[in-house]
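Work through this protein:
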Amino acid sequence: MKTKLLYSALIASCLVALSSCDPNDWNDKLDGFDGDKGITNKQMIAYTFTDADYTNLAANSANIKQAGDTLSKELKAVGTQHYFTDKITARDYIPNFLSDSDFAYFTLSDGSSINITYRVAGNVPEEVTNFGAASEYTVTETDYQDAWGSEKDYIEAFSPIVSAQKHIPSILSVEYSDAKKGDMVIVNYKQTETEPSFGGSGNEPAPGYEMTSALGSVAVGSNVTVKGLVTAICARGFILTDNSGSILVYYASGFDATAYKVGDQVDVTGEVSAYNKGFQITGTTATVTVTGNQAYSYPSAKVLDGKACDALLGITDNQLAVFAQFTGKVTISGNFYNFTIDGAETAIGSLYQATDEQKALFENDKTYTVTGYFTSISGGKYVNFVPTAAVEAKATKSRRALRAATAVTAKSVSAGGGDQRAYRLSTRSTATTGKPTRRSTCSRLPTIRLWA
């Protein structure tokens, strides 16, 4: 490298001297000076392209001009995937790069030769090329604040309720308002599988808040006073949990699901009723006071297989809500989200009065592990759940964004890590289906000799 810089400096100084006077006016009086001999850097080199070379080659202005709009994506993909293709060939694009200052031997003189070894892939699918040419975007703190609807009560991550699937499309529509159909963007973001809790309705956590143990002995028709926590929310009410159990506080269709948050400390006084073998507190006539908010961690969920779900259909006594988990393939029909559970002869899992954000966790005909509160049975076959989380089963490395945007690649991690998904944009910055992978289709060619 020092030699290259020396040669470059000498050549530059000679050019300057030649423009002002005859360089041999006094140099030819020095012993051993031959004014007719120029400085050269003639070498024969064996060289292997580095990842940086592919990146710099793709950014070379002459190559960009040569590729034009027609092959711009393919050229950009060479820079990120680090191999040539049948459209962006080494023979066509390496020559421009040899004189680029980013190339290690750009100062070689005429007559030099370089044996360059490089990678090439044949028959590259269009989706892989698009993925390689994708722009990259990292969700910002402001984006998370917008998603959570607060500059105070938010975390720098998405959650099962405040989902990436719902909010990333709107983020991309702002950041890439000029997107063209087929454009892709790789989105980096953080994800947590546990719902955070903030300040409830703006109250500070009540010091020394002590929950009751009243729910374990409720009976239909009785009045009960409960001090407990909101541990799940649906479109018709919330799950109230104290030291002895959990129960659905049920409202009619006018319930505002945004009025409560998981971890809210609530004092509830109301009448106990039952519906489809599930205890409830009638929310429309109950007195509910939010006194604070605290962090809440869910217990281990009771895992329900097909046989256990069938058994729930046979219960004869009213039950408190049970924190449980099942796995099934979802069928979506309007507002109905029903799950076929392996091993169940009759039972069908069903989301109970799901909110729009909960619905956004699911895509039709996919298999999910659903965690939440079993609240009731209905229709002789439905096992009803208020969900708290959902993870696509057998897809730990790929979770699709739904409807408005489809994930190409993703990895589910905790809030301390990050997800990365690629989104294919239409003119409205929404997505179409595509599943490229990063698998290598490269092979090494025999060494090719190119002359400088």
Q: What stands out?
A: The longest helix spans residues 2-20.
